[in-house]
Amino acid sequence: MELPQQVATYQIFVNNQDYKTLQNHVWDDIPVPAKFTVNQKSYRIGIQYRGYHIRKMRKKSFQLLFRSPSMFSGVRELHLNAEYRDPSMIRSKLSFDFFKEIGNLAPSADPVFLKLNGSNAGLYWQLESVDDLFLKKRGLADGTIFYASNDDANFSLIAPDKKAKSSLESGYTLKIGNKEDIGLIRELVYKINTLHPSDFKAEIAKWIDLPMYFLWLAGVVCTQNYDGFIQNYALYRSGQSGLFEVIPWDYDATWGRDIHGEIMEYDYVPIQGFNTLTSRLLDIPEYRLVYKSLLESILETRFTVAYLEPYIVNLQKLIRPYVLLDPYKKQDIETFDREANFILTYIRKRRSYLLDKLIQLQ
User: Fold this and answer.
1) Domain assignment of residue 3, yes or no
2) pLDDT in tens, the chain (362 residues)
3) Which residues contact residue 310 at a Cβ distance below 8 angstroms, ignoring those fewer than 6 apart?
4) pLDDT of 26
5) Cα-only R_g, the chain
6) What domain of life does the native source organism fall in (predicted)?
7) Rounded to an integer, what distance in angstroms lies between the CA atom of residue 38 and that of residue 275?
8) In terms of domains, do 251 and 211 share one?
9) What distance in Å separates the CA atoms of residue 142 and residue 127, rounded to the nearest whole number?
10) Full domain range(s) for residue 158
11) 278 in a domain, yes or no?
């Protein structure tokens, strides 16, 4: 796992009237104009708040949309995550790099220090959008991308509140593709829920990249992202293979903490995970063994204290000077300093729990 080389400094300037509009309309996804400056080069951008829970917090996350020039470092937009509820400030970065280590697709995450209208706004993580540029950067085939934008994206006909969904595509937002592509989600969800058991194995392999799905499942189970089974992901359908692949997104509530930053016990998420697609796949003995074998390998080689500790310690060491400059986090520096040990204790306990539960996948 490769550490970032540095922490870049970004400056954003928003005029007083536009800044008041931004602050007075926290829940609006309407960007206001601003100027973005880095390394003495300036860009005209639109800026808006992003996320859900974080909009209620003192330190908020931002989305930047580049207007002129229309590209910055090969992207059209940036997601600046505040990580306000994560006392370690590294859980998203650690999660995405862990997913990449085990062979899954995941967005990049880089630390930046943000100045807003000349004042310190704090340490943020610059998250890469999962879009057509994400695919191009990795040499992947063009395709369709959906965001699982709420917890209706559970691959079921029934919403988490036990009510019937309003539509088969409920929970998904089309990011890249045409309106006609929404039919792909409708058909996928319909097949997952209605295929007869005797037909399911052969048919689902025509829709889902199964090796990659099981890698993703192992990643969610190790990091214990409770919401990751029903949202917090993107669905990419390769235009070449026609298969869907799951890409993680929004992983600050992981590694032993929930969305409020409170302790999530190491045994909270079962080894089988949960959502309708996963349940149906793991009903098939052959697929259970595929998942078991992948998980065993990850627990042996990647999800260990010995493998992850140097990265965790050095990543926190890199960002610590900027946490001390963060007006929203500097008062919690003692908690920040303890959090590496908290994460390592979680890894130790979670790994032991998963090793003990492997027998359930026989």
Assistant:
1) no
2) 889 989 999 999 999 999 999 998 889 889 999 999 999 899 999 999 998 788 888 999 999 999 999 999 999 999 999 999 999 999 999 999 999 999 999 999 999 999 999 999 999 999 999 999 999 999 999 999 999 999 999 999 999 988 999 999 999 999 999 999 999 999 999 999 999 999 999 999 999 999 999 999 999 999 999 999 999 999 999 999 999 999 999 999 999 999 999 999 999 999 999 999 999 999 999 999 999 999 999 999 999 999 999 999 999 999 999 999 999 999 999 999 999 999 999 999 999 999 999 999 98
3) none
4) 87
5) 21
6) Bacteria
7) 42
8) yes
9) 21
10) 132-260
11) no
Residue 214 lies in a domain: yes
Q: Can you give the pLDDT at residue 18? A: 93
The tokens for 21 are: 């509009």
Helix (H, G, I), strand (E, B) or coil at 312: helix
In the chain the first and final C-alpha atoms are separated, in Å, by 31
**How many Å apart are CA 261 and CA 254, to the nearest integer?**
9
Question: CB within 8 A of 239, min separation 6: which ones?
Answer: 141, 142, 143, 144
- The label of the residue with tokens 């259970």 reads 288
Residue 2 lies in a domain: no
In sign, the C-alpha dihedral spanning 231, 111, 299, 347 is negative
Last residue of a domain, one of 63, 98, 127: 127
State whether 142 and 209 are in the same domain: yes
Assess whether 138 and 245 both reside in one domain.
yes
CA-to-CA dists, residue 283 to 197, 201, 272, 279, 287, angstroms: 9, 10, 10, 6, 8
- Helix 305-323 to helix 91-101 angle (10° resolution) is 150
Distance CA 358, CA 203 (A): 27
- Residue 117 shares a structural domain with residue 235: no
In this structure, are 251 and 146 located in the same domain?
Answer: yes
Q: Using an 8 Å Cβ cutoff, are 222 and 216 in contact? A: no
Q: Domain count for the chain, please give it.
A: 2
Last residue of a domain, one of 260, 282, 298: 260
CA distances to 105, 208, 238, 239 from 140, rounded to whole Å, are 11, 16, 8, 9
- HSE-up (13 A, CA, CB side) for residue 128: 23
Tell me, yes or no, whether 196 and 181 share the same domain. yes
164 and 104 in one domain? Answer: no
